[in-house]
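Can you give me the bound-state structure? Components:
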Amino acid sequence: MTLAVTLLGTGSPLPAPDRAGPATLISAGEGADAEHHLVDAGRGVLMRLAALGLGAPNLTAVWITHLHSDHITDLNDVITTRWVMTFTETPLTIVGPVGTRQVVDHILASLDPDVGYRLAHHDDLDHRPPVTVIEVERGEVHLPDGQGGAVTITCEQTDHKPVDPSVGYRFDHDGASVVVAGDTVPCTGLDALCTGANALVHTTIRKDIIANVPFQRMVDTLDYHSSPEEAGATAARAEVDTLILTHYVPPIPQSGTADDWRALAATEFDGTIEVGDDLHRVEITPR
Ligand SMILES: [Zn+2]
Ligand SMILES: [Zn+2]
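Here's the bound-state model for the whole set.
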């Protein structure tokens, strides 16, 4: 049984032609029995899933780290496509920090005309999108009966203030484990989540570059993200084997090569450092 990370989208709010918005897929197991956990649903997420031969119906659950627009842009697409492309009622569970229910309620409200059109047009479609929201703060998360089960998922508060609350998730499967941090500065919640894990997926921004951008709105982002060096320090404190960087701001290659990013993280962390394009896949192995 394998646990694998696929970087579906390595972009950020800044549109880039070849980087989808923030989204990471955690897959456990192989073939039809595999579980696929989607963490965040940024711009283009279903296009990237399609490249893997997967779609919204294959998702075990969706895990939202925080409610910044770039991380939830295409949540509406996941909801609609799941609903339209399944032929029996297939609930979609969306897990996120407090506030997620209100956002999902508003998304569903915005989809109301579309839902009405399709219900009226398709005789065999007799239910609205079946979405369940679970709001979490910390601890183990239990999905509804019949969903998941092969992966143990826990969450902790992260620190992306003033975006609050925000959470990170840890996925444990068959002795292997990976943490998906989301956007955060180094913090005790993330340290706790990472302790004993094999791998850490961390969003990062090149603070050395952003600090010199002549727009205050960009400079403002310095205080609630981690640099590759800070992500490296978090990985080193937790003694994980592998650090996977994503959410490259500015995008690679304008912000340097993958090797440049890796070198910055390596100033703090001497384990394996993965920097990749969309669809970059990393298998997580137990120690
Ligand atoms: Zn954010
Ligand atoms: Zn972000």
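A couple of observations. The mean pLDDT is 97. The pocket of zinc ion (ligand 1) is lined by residues 66, 68, 160, 163, 183 (CB under 6 Å).
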